[in-house]
Amino acid sequence: MFKKISLILIILTAITTGSGCWDAQDIAERSVVVLGAVDLNQEGGIQFGKPVQYDATILMPNLYTDTAEKVRIARVSGVSLSGSRDQRAYINPQTILTSMIRVYLFGESMSISGLAPVLDSLLRNPLLSNSVYMATTEGQAGDMITVQPPDFPDLGIYIIDLLRKVNDKSFFPVITLHDFRVQSASPGKNPVLPILRVDAGEVKISGLGIFRKDKLIDRVGLDGARPLTLLRGVKCKGYIPFVITREGEEVDRGTVFVGNGRKVRVERQGDQYTFNITITLKGQLIEHENPVILTRNREFLSMIEAQVAADIESECQTLIDTMQEEFKVDCIDISKYALAKWRSELEDTVDEGFIERANINVDVKVHIGNTGDLI
Amino acid sequence: MTSKQIGFMILGTLVGINFLTIPRTASEWAQQDAWIAVLIGALLPLVVLVLIERLGRQFPEMDFIQMSQFLFGKIAGSVLVILLCFHMIIGVAREIARFAYVESTFLLPATPIWAISLLILLVSLYVAGQGAQVVARINELLFYLYLPAFFLIVYPLMTVADYTYLLPVGGSGIGSIARSAFDVSLYFGRMEFLMVAYFMVTRKDEVLKAGAVALVAVAVPYMLFTAVCVMVFGAEDLQDQITPILAMFKSVAYPILERMDLLFMVAWSVAFRPAFNLLCMSGYSLTRLLNLQKRKHYLMILTVSGTAAYLLSSIPRNIVDVIIYSNWQGFTHPIVGLGYPLLYHLAARIRGGQKQNV
Amino acid sequence: MRKMPKKPAAPPPAPEPAEKPKNLQNINIPDITLPVSLAEKQTLLKPHIERSHDIVNRPFTIGAQQPVEAYAIYINGVIDTDAFNASILRPLMIYGEDPQSAGDQGPELPEYIARTLLTVGLFREIDRLADLVRDIYDGMLIIMLEGSSQVLSIDIHKAHLRAIEEPVSERGLRGSKEGFIESLDVNISMVRRRLRDPKLVVKKTVMGQRTRTQVALLYIEDIADPNIVKEVETRLNNVQIDAVVASGYIEQLVQDHPWTVFYQHRVTEKPDKAVMQILEGRVLILVDGTPSSISAPSLFVEFFQAPGDYYERTWIASFIRVLRYIAFFLAVSTSAMYIAVVNFQPELIPQELLVPIARFRNQVPFAVVLEVLVLEIMMQLVIEAGHHLPGNVGQTVGVVGGIIMGQAAITARFASPAAVIVASFSAMCTFVLPSPGMALISRVLRLPMILAAASFGAVGFALMWLILITHMTSLTSVGVPYMSPLSPTRYRDLKDSIIRYFLTSMKDRPVSIPSQDKVRQAKQGVTGNQ
User: Fold this and answer.
1) Residues A4-51 pLDDT 10s
2) Could you read off the pLDDT of B273-323 as tens digits, one per residue?
């Protein structure tokens, strides 16, 4: 008797819990969002008695194959970022699947005002991966989303691939939501973000944005991005052109393809902190114009290495000076080495004037191991 | 059950939803030395293990109920047994509630908490209903199934971890480390289930060794994962994360299987071992206490205990309540875990260590 | 609640020797001693055989000088007529030339002629009516004589034997291609040919009150655990059923857990596999009329082993074994995982794959659960149709049905390509499993997995696996834990479970199966040149 009652109870419970399927929703009824853009609202407005603050624009591949448009772009405004989703219910017949977003763009004004409020919405979403790429744009990010790259199904795939693979081809960092979050929250750290802009109908990377915690304060162009990346120690591979001149005459011109590494040592004398940064570049020579046979002139390769090292050192030193004089934030991520030794003393003050007062020396070592198919 | 199986049961009882949340607790005061706090916190269950093992040696022919009634008399002994069972049922409720909220957060956001809790409870009842031997084997099997999961930390370690977050070692101060170690020790609670399980082991002389190995097997991964979480996030950023382990997996896109956090959570959905372990122990104790025929009434007792645990797990209104109540309930673990064996030792000493044939 | 096995665990009273047929209660046949008079014997026997027109009652006389009246009674078509004529009738009917008269023998005549005249191997003397009737219907030749209550029961069955060939359901690349046939004696001889151990015990018994099917128990006396042998014998003796038509009946009647979907005894049609089972300490049951054997106890891991594993090299065999476990997991889980990710957790799919899947799903008007269930049913119907149709037709149906129906389903928008791939992949995985039983189980288990995933997504899927593993862990086979050596973990036996380690290291018999003699091979000596 007891067994029968137990069985009935179990079946009833199973039917009750099984009939819900509360979370079941077919993928065909959802809109997969690949790219999101967040801007400060420019037009103003009131929602639910409160001023509208943010514009959120999303790009979704069209699931219907027999339609003219391959993508759909939807823009909504809201009092808060997640609050703007309320407006989507009135324009989008399907449920938005924001957890599949792979890249977030933030408008320039948004970045300048600070990304912290928006980050909370993103980080609080348990289904959104923290490995989404982040970038800031020149102008409004929502306007950039309307650009359709000619050789790609949609802008989302284009930007994802652009950002994901850039550090294999150039000295340029890839920043994810996790990176930004950790670097903006940790003492002594400040994030950087790629800057995108529209140029002749194409979206391009135009530089790196310098952030003081979550606020954009300055930027460097593509020329400045290389030393900044090398100084930050972000592992990349890239091409470094060189020109060797002796006594005013050009001796050689060429390019090396190298990967980078960084070592930082910090010393302290009283309140004076000295950072010695050693940047190592290892790779191969991929072109040079001087027809010299390197085995007959072994010093020539050393000359190339020395020239590349000197060029990079000079770039890095220029950037360091700019950082200390203009940016006044540690955008090269070296304060953590001081914190590693003197955390309790520096924790509260490392973000206030610490990097401006530090001595920072750079030493670059270049090692060309390979010269391709020619010697 | 064998001594090896009791080791796996210890491991299973200590490692449940705690595994996902311990780095946050450990780093609250100890900051970069959170991993040291974890190691120190693991000493408490070791002490409880030794106390219970020493107690059990004095009464090799008895089980927990017989020993309680022998030492304290029939009524007082029964009351102690019931109180321990009630404590274990509360532990089941806590585990169910926390599991339900975490699963609701990551995997089933629209499913009501009561449905997820009921699901976990029903499965726990089914597993516990198979008997202690099957429960012990399930613990053993699940341990081996989860072993590969420990290699998952390699990828974040290689990509986003920053070793400077762990330095300087010891820099947070002994006081802070001790404070965090105490908080962590509450996570290592529930060893008191051994008061019941010890007497089910055939080779009791091997329990201490098996238990010690199990504790090391718990403490070392906890320490490793805590250290890696600190390296990935830094101590400050860990504080506002409910489940740092999952956040760590979420921070990197693993090759091929991009969302390792969700996959891990799916696999961890069955890791509510403390729930069915404690249900089994409390059910067994109550069945023996009431002198019921095990085969017939064990399941009935389990159903009643499970229902009580379910009702208790429904009390918290939201995740904040769950965390707060859970922290409060955590304080009862050292009280019961240390208090019970010490009390029994005292009573045994007063009684002169006499054994009564039962 | 773990169900205790219904069969008693205590050792049973010692069963009667298997050589002597069991004295089962015969319906309506009085158990009386036969009279001396031939006519009275005929009168007693007549009511029990007169309705069977295939029973021949052939009168003849033994001897010419003092002829003794006799009858030969047999079922036409069952006995070997040539042997009857040459070895029975002829020597008896020309006995009369011998100066010794048959009438001088008196009541000892049956024994006398059996010893001196009959050139047959198996015979016995019976004097009870119940035994007489039983032996007639067992296919024996009965010789009744005047003047003696003893009758001769002679075994000259005609051998209607099928040729020995490779079993269809257990093909292998290497190893023996022989399979059991329907004759119990031939099957026993196949085992004996491979296992010439004097300690091999063959115990015969009869089961089924009406079918009276011969059943043989085989084990090695100094390897098999006596408790397990006793337990199996007790269970067989406790079976009270009127018909045992096939070994499947016995399998279901003596198992520990009748309600589970898992087989608790291993069934094989291959003698080499059966011999391996016996050598590991198991008891083998052979049933007359069934070309397969049952071994007990059996473990879950055995259903993923094939004899060919031991003929291959370690790395290859281990790779294939691991593949089988993966195939089992995928066979049970693929459809459920598909439902879970499409309906509940699409984040688990890479985005590049998700968008095409979503586009194809958009074209199908049915819910994904219905889509998967319909495809599963279609796949199962195709498989079943292929089994029941003869040879080439079955193969053609399988191929054509699978391909054309799948393509038509996509074109007609009944299903999306991903769902078709999932359903056919699941089916393919079941065919990787070496045990037909385990393949069937994987097909059955798919359904609760699908329902669990349809209700709670990946969480339901994971919990259902926990329930399944718990259920398997709670099973026993003749008291031996079914999931051993995985749970409880027997590290030594893991060498031959998920992987197949080097044969030279498998010196002992599996610990998971209780046995007496644990040593399988001695320590290997030095190689040839030393």
Assistant:
1) 666 766 676 666 666 667 889 998 888 899 999 999 988 878 888 888
2) 999 999 999 999 999 999 887 677 898 899 999 999 999 999 999 999 998
Residue C27: is its pLDDT beyond 60? no
Q: In this structure, are C406 and C265 located in the same domain?
A: no
- Residue B357: per-residue pLDDT: 46
Q: Kindly state whether residues C466 and C445 are assigned to the same domain.
A: yes
The total number of structural domains in chain B stands at: 1
- Residue A344, domain CATH: 3.30.300.210
Does the beta-carbon distance from A336 to B164 stay under 8 Å? yes
In a domain, C123, yes or no: yes
pTM of the model: 0.87
Please identify, among A176, A198, A228, the residue that sits at the C-terminal boundary of a domain. A228
What is the spatial distance between Cα B193 and Cα A245, in angstroms, rounded to a whole number? 79
Q: Give the end of a domain, one of C154, C171, C192.
A: C154
**Contact of C368 with C342, CB cutoff 8 Å:** yes
Q: Cα(B123)–Cα(B270) distance, rounded to whole angstroms?
A: 9
Domain end among A196, A228, A260: A228
Q: Has the ipTM of the complex gone over 0.90?
A: yes
Q: The CATH number of the domain where B139 resides is what?
A: 1.20.1740.10
b/e map B197-211, b = 16+ CB within 10 Å: bbbbbeebeebbebb
Q: Which residue in chain B is spatially nearest to A120 when comparing CA positions?
A: B240
With a cut of 60, say whether residue B358 has pLDDT above it.
Answer: no
Assess whether pLDDT exceeds 90 at residue C466: yes
**Phi and psi dihedrals of A77, rounded to 5?**
-120, 155
Instruction: Count Cβ–Cβ pairs < 8 Å, chain A vs chain C.
Output: 62
> What string of H, E and C letters represents the secondary structure of B210-272?
HHHHHHHHHHHHHHHHHHHHHHHHCHHHHCCCCCHHHHHHHCCCCCCCCCHHHHHHHHHCCCC
Which structural domain, as residue segments, surrounds residue C367? 310-480
Higher pLDDT, B72 or A70: B72
**Cβ–Cβ gap C347/A30 under 8 Å:** no
**B357 domain residue, yes or no:** no
Cα–Cα dist A216/C139, whole Å: 100
Point out the residue among A21, A24, A27 whose CB comes nearest to the CB of C358.
A27
Let me know if residue C363 belongs to a domain: yes
What is the mean predicted confidence (pLDDT) over A341-351?
Answer: 91
Query: How many structural domains is chain C composed of?
Result: 3
* C-beta neighbour count of A46 within 10 angstroms: 9
Which residue type is seen at C396?
Answer: T
* Residues spanned by the domain of B200: 3-346
Q: How many domains does chain A have?
A: 2
Residue C352 forms contact with B (CB below 8 Å):
no
Return mean pLDDT, chain B.
90
Is C161 within the bounds of a domain? no
| Tokens describing residue C20 | 């002597």
Are A118 and A241 in a shared domain?
A: no
Q: For residue C8, give how far its alpha carbon lies from the nearest alpha carbon of chain A (Å).
A: 22
Give bridge partners of residue A46 from the DSSP assignment: A51
Average pLDDT over residues A95-107: 91
Give the count of beta carbons closer than 10 Å to the beta carbon of residue A254: 18
Q: Domain end: C447, C465, C480, which one?
A: C480
Q: For C478, which DSSP code?
A: T
